[in-house]
Amino acid sequence: MDYNPKWAGGSNDPTCTSCQRPITSDQRSKRIDFTNDPHGYRGLSGLYHVECSKPFDSLANAINMMSLGHF
Which of 3, 45, 55, 61 could in theory staple to 40 by disulfide, Cβ–Cβ 3.0 to 4.6 A? Predict the structure, then answer.
């Protein structure tokens, strides 16, 4: 069983998909969806800190365009 800090009284803030640190209410975040990972099971789609999201946002745009046949 995986340890989850929420069970031990840790942060209830959502976790950044990239750096795995909490996204607090005073931090900006961005949701990124990959068409090849719609539920986030592969660790791509999810909520990111704005700073962490930049490379993933570009990658998601490219992958999503290719899956739609625009290339």
Answer: 45
User: What's the pTM?
Assistant: 0.75
23 CB burial (10 A radius; 0-12, 13-18, 19+): buried
pLDDT at 67: 78
Both tokens of 58, joined, read: 């570009």
Which token pair is 69?
């046949």
Residues in the chain: 71
| Nearest CA-CA partner of 45 in 61, 60, 34 | 34
* DSSP-based three-state secondary structure for 62: helix
pLDDT tens digits, 1-47: 455 555 555 678 999 999 999 999 999 999 999 998 999 999 999 99
